[in-house]
Amino acid sequence: MNSADRKRSISYYSAYTALFILLFFLCFGIYLLIYRKSLIRYTDALEMHYVSYVYARRAIMEFFHSGTVSLWEPASGYGTDSFLFFVAYLTDPVYLITYVIPEKFSEYGFSLTYLIRFYLAGLAFSYLSLKRGNDHYSTLCGAVVYVFSSCALTGLQQSGFIVPLYMFPLLIAAADELFDKKKPVLYVAVLSFFAISNFYFVYMSAILVVIYCLLKWFLEYERKKTIGEFLRIVGRFALFSLWSAANAAFSLIPIALTLRQAGRLELERYVPLFYDASFYKKAFQGFVSGYDMLDRDSRIGYSVLALICIFALFVCREKVFRKIRIEFILMTVALMLPSAGYLMNAFNYPANRWAWGYGLLVSYIVVIMIPKIRVMSRKQKIIISVCSVIYMILGFTVLNAYSFTYPFIVILLIAASAGILLAERIQEKAYKIIVLCLTCVSVIYFSFFQCTKSNGNFFSDFVPSGKALYLLTDFSGLNLLDDAGSSSGSRYGHSGTVYHFQNSSILTGMSGIDFYNNIYNNNVDRFHQDISLNANMNFRYDGLDDRSDLMHLMGVKYYISGLDDTTNPVGYDTLCDADSATGYRLLSYDGQRTLFTSFKSTVAESGFEALDPYAMQQVLMNYCVVEDGYGEEGVIDPDLFDGDRLEYRLESADDGNTFDSDGMTIEGYSGESQITLSIPEQSDAELYVYIGDLVYGDKTQECYGIYVEGLYDGEPAGMKELIYGFTPFNHMYAGKEDWLVCLGRISGKVNMIKFTFEKPGRYDFSELSIYAEPESKIEENISKLDQDFGDISVNGDQVMFSRTCEQSEYVLISIPYSDGWTAEDNGKPADIIRADVGFMAVKLDPGTHNVVLKYKTPGLKSGVCISVISVISFITAGVLLYRNRSKET
């Protein structure tokens, strides 16, 4: 690069930096200040990304101080693999700023990562555009459209969605080099880092790159096209893609091994041939005003300038633009087809989360067409203006534009069309300024109609400024645990009245049985499915539905409840602390509660899974359930659960509603339709309602809600729970069709169960049962739990306990089963048995035992070895190639 080029580059990136800062403030920052919001959204960002950011800081600090990083985090749910949970954060250089920002200011450090990533997105786009020889001013316009259009809003909601914005342009630039037989260093470096930082988007990127290269071969390749040459190009991409995967093997192999067993990926979901008509109407207008397609983090929405440039692309019939026209047509059609979204989302459910790739294409079209529009013939400009008029007319008539933003779009289109017609009369410098101003005004107006409270109110779901860390700790009452004197190997629970954020337990150091992450342990989900826990997602759960039996079995020592709660799970009666500021109090169990429970008897898993969920719960309290072939496979005592089932009869039903042994037909709407069953009067018991194989028959709906409430003589008894289920038409469907709902302890008396339905339709089921578990029985179950262990230590990826046995027994360890765990008993290897469906157990013979369990992420060691060998070989090959070329010259 000569001095003149260097000066132009410095001028460009300086202008881009200044414009980026200004536009980020005008598009987003001003609304954050006005509404006093942070850049952290409640959903996902606070519970996953911000928590992970804080955790990553702690892990980085620990690594620098001790040189080690724990591979197991016991405070995340029942415990989870910390490497899998946080690898994307621990390996992202942007997160290194956490090291210099104190935790109390972590909210601002986390917000800074958004700015850095968006800034990098514009730099990456500029690099791609300028590398292809485009001029600076049109590149600047394209960068503005790229960074501040629809994908920015998705990125503000999900920080990980910003990653492909700066990685994909670099990957395309690297693919160009590799295609043209240039150095593969950029391709391997970009793809390797992309795979480490966000494997989810690498899959989508791979498909887009393949299509891009095929079109490049057929439409732009100037050499003689032969099969041999084609195979050489394919081989080159295959070789260096595999090399990149090998570089990232330390991350990819553990993730692949975990995802391989994820039950949610095996579910069959409904994939329609076409979307609903409303989808296409909203997409039509949403091209310039914004549209989150199906509310699945897949936004489109670009400037009016982008629409003008699309029209210009198809008006201009030059051969040089043939490839990009075909790319635009193919990608637009793909956005409109559910099958394409299904493919791009790894055959999970239809979602256009690859819309950032479409955004790159649209923004690049802006770059190449801005200079071209000015020199077009008057006829071509008139055609572009006519297309704009047709777009306006269609929006107001056939497609019935759905929001009042459309008139503003029309005003900008009219102004842009007039500018096109007069372009040749405007000096070039003035033309550039006008175009840049139009671009900036378009994205500012776009944000205005998305962010203002009277319009899109985009920031309504964002955390108040300065409150993120407080919400995760003190606000949820977790500060009460600080003075509880909690021992290693215990857990806490909380009542439904406590406003609790997922994954916040990670910041306390104590497991709270709450979890939210797409990479999850399928054994835990199997356990929840078997006991029909009132939870509707595989990868998101929060407690044990206040089931007293299971809370004690799983080692819950502490319980956070509201100050006004009248009842709590059985056994949690000792007030440890109270906090009138948060409105919560902390209760505890007087005896020992640990993650370890000893059982003298076992039952086989096959016999256990033949029971209904309530019976399963009683079995879990009295036996250790082991895999078939282990243990003595004892006979289950039917007296454990037979006497708790209640008879019921139909008491009343709203007009049009019917109830029979196979299901319920509901006619009403909006939570007003009810069916009430009468039961024998109950008190001093924990009440359960079980609905088996519940299928909602209205195939136009994606979800349903049923409130289940306990009544006494028609009056509320303070017991109400919600069943919120998804159908196969919903992308969150988890195969959940069995529901055992715990209504809690009866504080007075109950003699009725009322069902209130949010939606009409047919609700079919194979079984509806009502159970009342007497408090005396729960207390007996609790008293029989043998959790008397010594030398307990749950410290990261090492768990220890001691136990003296007079006879053979099985120790249930309520930590999720994983191939990564190994065990030693008195220094000798011991077998780990999968127990209680999702957890672990070890068999102890009579005598004294010191048991140590250690965890290593499955596949991590082999992945690290592959990565080290791959990186070294790649560097070596590069050095040798460089030396050979130096000798030749």
Labels describing this entry:
five-stranded antiparallel beta sheet; 889 residues; Maltose phosphorylase, domain 3; globular; 44% helix
Computed Rg:
31 Å
Please report which band the strand proportion falls in: under 5%, 5-15%, 15-25%, 25-35%, 35-45% or over 45%.
15-25%
Termini Cα gap: 21 Å
Approximate helicity band = 40-55%
Count of DSSP-assigned helices: 26
Average pLDDT works out at: 87
Biggest sheet: strands side by side, in what order?
17-20-26-23-24
What class would the helix/strand composition place it in? alpha+beta
Largest sheet: 5 strands, antiparallel
- Coarse shape: globular
Uncertain parts: none
Descriptive overview:
44% of the residues lie in helices and 20% in strands. The protein has 889 residues and is α+β, with helices and mostly antiparallel strands. It folds into four domains: 3-459, no CATH class; 473-594, no CATH class; 599-640 and 789-855, Maltose phosphorylase, domain 3; 642-778, Jelly Rolls (Sandwich). Strands 17-20-26-23-24 form a five-stranded antiparallel beta sheet, with no helix packed on it. α1 (3-35) packs antiparallel against α4, α4 (106-131) packs antiparallel against α5 and α8 packs antiparallel against α9. The longest helix is centred in the first third of the chain and has 33 residues, at 3-35. The model has no long low-confidence stretch (mean pLDDT 87).
In short:
By secondary structure, this protein is of the alpha+beta class.
Reconstruct the topology from this structure:
Layout: H1 3-35, E1 37-41, H2 42-66, E2 72-73, E3 80-81, H3 82-90, H4 106-131, H5 136-148, H6 150-157, H7 163-179, H8 185-197, H9 199-219, H10 227-247, H11 249-260, H12 277-289, E4 291-292, E5 299-300, H13 304-315, H14 322-336, H15 338-344, H16 355-374, H17 378-396, H18 406-421, H19 428-451, E6 462-464, H20 468-472, E7 491-494, E8 514-516, H21 522-530, E9 540-542, H22 548-553, E10 556-562, E11 574-579, E12 584-588, E13 596-599, E14 602-604, H23 605-608, H24 613-620, E15 624-626, E16 645-646, E17 649-653, E18 658-660, E19 663-666, E20 673-682, E21 685-692, E22 695-696, E23 703-712, E24 715-726, E25 739-745, E26 750-757, E27 761-764, E28 767-774, H25 775-784, E29 790-795, E30 798-805, E31 809-813, E32 821-825, E33 828-830, E34 833-835, E35 839-844, E36 847-855, H26 860-888
Parallel strand pairs: 7-10, 14-15
Antiparallel strand pairs: 1-6, 2-3, 4-5, 8-9, 10-12, 11-12, 13-31, 16-28, 17-20, 18-19, 19-27, 20-26, 21-25, 21-28, 22-27, 23-24, 23-26, 29-30, 30-36, 31-35, 32-33, 32-36, 34-35
